Amino acid sequence: MNNLSAEELYALAREREKEEAERQEQEFKEKREQLKAKRREIVARQRKELAALDREIRKLGGAVGRRGSRKGGRAGGTATIGEQLCEIVATQPEMTISEIREKAEETGVDTRNLSQALAYLKRQGRLASPRRGVYSAP
């Protein structure tokens, strides 16, 4: 070590840094793979448990919803999300998107695609929009 020049020491240090970075990346990769495997196991177990619960519900004559079941679907004669949104907007002369979202969440309407649903209702002529982000009944 004492006989190495500054350039050789620098090159040696860079090489060791590179090896350390590669080793660390390999450790991270192995850890990621372990965590992914653990996640797959948990998801598989959860699916089996849900399937068992669904079978029990069906045995008892109940209906089982699909993944991410919609609260505002047509099952049992309930109104669609669009109809529920129109009813919410009709309660006041004008409502902002945030007010509509708040009222919809209170009544149990799925608000994940609220902006798209409102735009669709506006194109259909079921809602009007006097200004940006504000809706009213036509």
Q: Quick recap of the structure?
A:
By secondary structure, the chain is mainly alpha-helical. It has helices at 6-59, 81-90, 97-107, 114-124; strands at 95-96, 128-131, 134-136. The chain contains four helices and three strands, in the order ααβααββ.
Give a description of the structure.
There is one protein chain. With 138 residues, the chain is mostly helical. Helices cover 62% and strands 7% of the residues. It contains 4 helices and 3 strands. It has helices at 6-59, 81-90, 97-107, 114-124, and strands at 95-96, 128-131, 134-136. A 3-stranded antiparallel beta sheet has the order 1-3-2. Strand 2 and strand 3 form a beta hairpin. It is elongated and about 90 Å long. Mean pLDDT is 85; it is low at 67-76.
Question: Main traits of this protein?
Answer:
62% helix, 3 strands, 7% strand, mainly alpha, 138 residues
